[in-house]
Amino acid sequence: MSGRLDWRSGPAGPLRGGVGVPGDKSVSHRALMFGALAEGGSRIRGFLEGEDTRATAAVLQQLGVRIETPAAGERLVHGVGLHGLHASGEPLDCGNAGTGMRLLAGLLAGQAFDSTLVGDASLSKRPMRRVTDPLAAMGARIDTQDGLPPLHVRGGQRLHGIRYELPVASAQVKSALLLAGLYAEGETEVIEPHPTRDYTERMLAAFGWPISFEPGRAQLSGGHALRATDVDVPADFSSAAFFLVAASIVPGSELRLPAVGLNPRRTGLLQALRLMGADIRIENPRESGGEPLGDIVVRHAPLHGVELPEALVPDMIDEFPALFVAAAVAEGRTVIRGAAELRVKESDRLAAMAAGLRVLGITVDETPDGATIHGGTLAGGTVESLTDHRIAMSFAVAGLVAQSPVRINDCRHVATSFPGFMELANGCGFALEAAA
Ligand code: S3P
To answer: Which domain holds residue 268?
Structure first.
């Protein structure tokens, strides 16, 4: 990714109309990987055309998987079977994607050949021991640079199943171990301190792999096969989140977001916003491919601060930047605790949001695992995205209700998860433009 892109988001609204947000990032990554390891062709509809998921597709192609793009948002993955991947002579570039790198580490640990996983500057600073340590306990050999990427994954290791209690709730780590477990002798069991998104478990079952799982626990054994399966990807709740907050805080707004994934391990923000007084309804609740979906209707409502229940944290782990903006304009203070994981995302999100909101005139008391945000009035100013897509989009939302425009530096990474954000945002009433 090259070139720099700054944004200016001005006061605007009301926001009106329908917003079709792109496909779910977590589901798109997994559909590619399971499609690649299955026998036969799997069609993915609603695929996220983001840089993160395209990087995963490119890695799988380097490993010998044929992936066609019949139309934008669609992929046809010609699976090579569990043992059909080939070595790539080149490093495998995961770009900005922690999900891509961590899940691929598990998948590659069981191959007969060596691989090297690399990432961009942000990914190169993210902790990898959380996956390499338990994978090593399964017999994998992965070298890191003091716990950071690149990851050199040695092939030809005999993996064996383990029972592993995750020290932190992480769907990425859980999924890496389950992927390695496909290649391991015996049973792999993962226990979580708090349940996290279960797309890997659901998708493995859909692809015909015997797996037992319940919230907080998953167990499978090696030695089976994956059967090609078509996947319909729901709209990404994490992308919808920016519009849920935007419509909630801009007077006179009403937005409808169709066919958004509502997996309960993803919708903590819905509950948090409702606790703050938001007016959000789900219409036409339904299921597709075993995943709950619904159309979300959100109207403006005055928000008030809350003490966020800690139990909600894992279910809204990617939505905190957006929540910070809601809290900044809510009446009273919002207290966040138990969210230290935010410090090791695409940026240190607690520090990034606290710094940006302070520039805009909001008092934020940062703690090691959270923050207290004192609601107030947003002034304009210049904030830093720290090359984090969700920080950039959150401050674009803040600009809507600021007294003068908010300039957001370095927004090019928005394309990792939400290509077309600016057009969709302006289509419903934002005043967002590239800044000179
Ligand atoms: C993801 C899991 C979460 C989340 C990330 C996507 C996944 O990360 O933040 O955006 O697809 O499994 P952690 O597992 O590190 O919490």
So the answer is: 7-23+234-434
Q: Are 114 and 90 in contact (CB under 8 A)?
A: no
Query: Which of 123, 317, 349 maximizes ligand 1 atoms within 8 Å of its Cβ, making it the mutation to test the pocket?
Result: 317
Q: Is 1 a domain residue?
A: no
For residue 200, how far is its CA from the centre of ligand 1 (angstroms)? 12
Annotated binding site, which residues? 25-26, 30, 98, 126, 170, 172, 318, 345, 349, 390
Place of tokens 């425009």: 405
Q: Residues 212, 214, 220, CA angle at the centre, nearest 5°?
A: 25
Q: Which tens digits make up the pLDDT trace of 211-242?
A: 999 999 999 999 999 999 999 999 999 999 99
Q: Is residue 2 part of a domain?
A: no
Whole-angstrom Cα distance, residue 359 to residue 361? 5
Q: Using one digit for the tens of pLDDT, what is the confidence trace for 393-426?
A: 999 999 999 999 999 999 999 999 999 999 999 9
> Is 318 marked active-site?
yes
Q: What is the CATH number of the domain that holds 337?
A: 3.65.10.10
Q: Which residues of 40-67 are buried (b: 16+ CB within 10 A; e: fewer)?
A: eebbbbbbbbbbbbbbbbbbbebbebeb
**What total of structural domains would you count in the chain?**
2
Residues near 323 by beta carbon (within 8 Å), at least 6 away in sequence: 245, 269, 272, 273, 308, 316, 334, 336
Protein residue with least CA distance to atom 14, ligand 1 = 170
Q: Strands of 99-202 (E only): list them.
A: 115-118, 141-145, 148-154, 163-165, 187-191
Ligand 1 atom nearest the C-alpha of 197 is 12
Cα(102) to ligand 1 centroid in Å equals 10
Which residues have C-beta atoms less than 6 Å from ligand 1?
26, 99, 170-172, 175, 197, 317-318, 341
